[in-house]
Structures are given as C-alpha cells and as structure tokens.
Design brief:
By secondary structure, the chain is an alpha+beta fold. It has helices spanning about 45-50, 75-85, 110-120, 130-140, 180-195, 200-210, 240-265, 270-280, 290-300, 315-325, 325-330, and strands at about 5-10, 15-20, 25-30, 30-35, 40-45, 60, 65, 70, 100-105, 125-130, 150-155, 160-165, 170-175, 195-200, 220-230, 235-240, 280-285, 305, 335.
Length: about 325
C-alpha cells in the first residue's frame, strides 16, 4: 500500500521532495527555462539551472521563488506540476496526495494562500503549511516538543529564519531576506567594483564555496576566476582571495548576527538559560560557509553547532513529520491552510 503523503521543501534555491515510506526522492534547483514569447516551459530543475546566464534572447531562465515566497505564480505551479508528475507516482495514488510544504516564518496570509494554491493546482489535495525553522530543528535531531528552549538558525538560499522553539511551537522568530543567494550577489558585485570584471552567479557561488569565509584571516586561499572585462569587453582571468570573499559578504553576515541577537533579546529568561546549555543549531546550505559557527559563537556568547545534515535538515524534518502526519495534524501542531 502506497502513501498519499508528500513533503516539499520549497526553497528559493532548491526544491526537495520527500515521499512517505520512500525518503527523499527529488532534489532539483528551483529554476525554470521559458520561451519568452510563448511562455512555454522548456526545462525545469538542473537542466534549466545549466541555462542560467547562457540562454539566447528568446529563452529566459528564471527562479519563480524569491526570498522564500512565490514571485511568479504560474511558473511556480508549472515547476511543482513537473516535479510531482516526474515522481511517476500517479498510478499508485487512490486520491490526491496530502502535501506538507515548508515556508519561511512571518510570511503573509496572501503568500500562504499562493503556496497552497500552487500546490493544489499542481495536483495536491489537502495542503499543510509548516514553518521552516521548526521543521529544520526536527530534521537536525532536536526534540522541540519538550518544555525546553531550542534555538535554530536556518540559512537557505533566499531567507534566513531564526527561531526559538519550545513545546512544539515558535516562541520568538525573525525572517531575514539575507542568505546564500545574497552572499553570491555580493561577491559578484565586489568583483565588479574592485576588479572591473563581470561574473555570473555560478562563478560567484564557486568563489563562496572554494575560498569564502566570514572570519577575518579565517582562510588563506585563492582561486582563479574568469569573466568579462568591463573596459574592453574581452574575457579575462583574475585571482580572488579568501580575504576579498570575506569583505564581500561582511555586511550580509552582520545582518544575520544582528537578527540572531534580536531574537535572543526577545526570548524569555528561562528559555535563554536552556539555550546557553543546549546551544544554537545552524541548518541550511548557507550555514556551511567557512567560519560562520565560530563567528556566531563569539558574537552570541553561546555555543553554536552546524547540523550534521545541514543541507537536508528541512526535508528530513518534513519526512519525520510526514511519518506522523495523522497524529501531528490531529494535535494541531500543523497549520492547515
């Protein structure tokens, strides 16, 4: 007997899908390639991502989700429809699948409805919405249903969600439109400003991964970067150092630190004491940038740890909740929209 339950981590950078009883069955970039004139979908996911910055004038590669919410409804619907149908599970479902979707904290009811509509039009039945930091904490192995304070910082592609959790609920939280994609954008802008070289988002991301750090003198590495010279328009190769990458992301990282401090300042004293004992859990792909756990430990004065499976914490947490969806939904720990 096959399950009707699907969990979706609808991220700005990637979409991950978990099917109850099967685990993670899909992990694709949140990118859609469209014909500009007809708006026909030409490619979705990794195939479309490879087209970013490399398409002819008649084709555009777009990210339909911006800052964790739907910016282009029709394209998001087409993307979800493609992913759900690609699972080849249609014949096994006796009815439309229940779908649990994770989204940032503090999104508006309009944005919630847009996510629900897109999922239902893509073939879903009942749609549940859950806050990303809560699901990420579950996926990281934190027991958030006990009367103790747990703090998680989930740094995705479009948003950083910071939350203190207790008894299965969010006590205080903050959602920032500062995350991995902004790091990439800032690196590209730094290279443009200081080296007069234009580079694409793939190259900027490579710099972040290979030599990036948030600590001054945290890494002493360098990498070769190719791009288009702004002066003569010809291809040129330069060398970027870890120090330059750190300077490029410094302001964005400062915003995350300040956001975490703000959440801690709003946390009840008893829960604050728990966080000193338990520490703060870092999840999401953005958490993997070099030195971030060390910097946050120094700034917040509490231990900060990176989750073992940081990239997949949200979808893993979705899977855990899906395995218990009847019990969790009945106890109203999920919010049905």
């Amino acid at each position: 007997m096959f399950s009707n339950d699907i969990g979706i981590d609808l991220g700005t950078a990637n979409v991950l899908v978990y099917v109850k009883g099967q685990g993670i069955v899909l992990n694709e970039p949140s990118v859609v390639a469209l014909n500009q004139s007809t708006k026909k979908v030409l490619a979705v996911g990794e195939e479309a991502r490879l087209m970013v910055g490399r398409t002819p004038g008649s084709i555009i590669a777009v990210r339909p989700l911006q800052d964790g919410v739907i910016a282009d409804f029709d394209t998001t619907e087409a993307m979800l429809t493609h992913f759900i149908s690609s699972l080849k599970l249609g014949g096994r479902f006796s009815k439309k699948p229940r779908i649990l979707i994770c989204c940032p904290t503090n999104i508006t009811s309009v944005e919630q409805n847009a996510i629900r509509e897109a999922a239902q039009k893509a073939g879903g039945g009942t749609v549940y919405l859950e806050e990303e930091p809560k699901v990420a904490a579950v996926g990281a192995g934190m027991d958030i249903f006990q009367p103790y304070g747990n703090m998680v910082i989930d740094i995705g592609g479009g948003t950083t969600d910071i939350a203190v959790l207790s008894l299965g609920g969010v006590v205080t939280s903050k959602s920032l439109k500062v995350a991995g994609n902004l790091f990439d954008k800032n690196i590209a802008e730094y290279v443009k400003k200081h080296h007069k070289l234009l580079i694409g988002e793939h190259t900027a991301e490579r710099i972040k991964v290979e030599v990036g750090t948030v600590l001054k003198d945290g890494r002493q590495e360098e990498t070769e970067v190719r791009g288009r010279d702004m002066i003569n328009g010809l291809p040129r190769t330069i060398t970027i150092t870890s120090k330059e990458a750190q300077e490029a992301v410094e302001d964005a990282v400062h915003q995350i630190v300040q956001g975490a401090k703000s959440v801690l300042e709003q946390t009840p004293p008893e829960l604050s004491a728990d966080i000193i004992d338990r520490g703060v859990m870092l999840t999401g792909g953005g958490a993997l940038i070099h030195g971030l756990d060390q910097l946050l430990t120094e700034q917040l004065l509490v231990p900060v740890f990176i989750a073992d499976n940081a990239m997949n914490c949200v979808v893993d947490g979705t899977g855990i909740l899906l395995e218990n969806i009847d019990k969790v939904a009945k106890s109203k720990k999920l919010v049905e929209i």
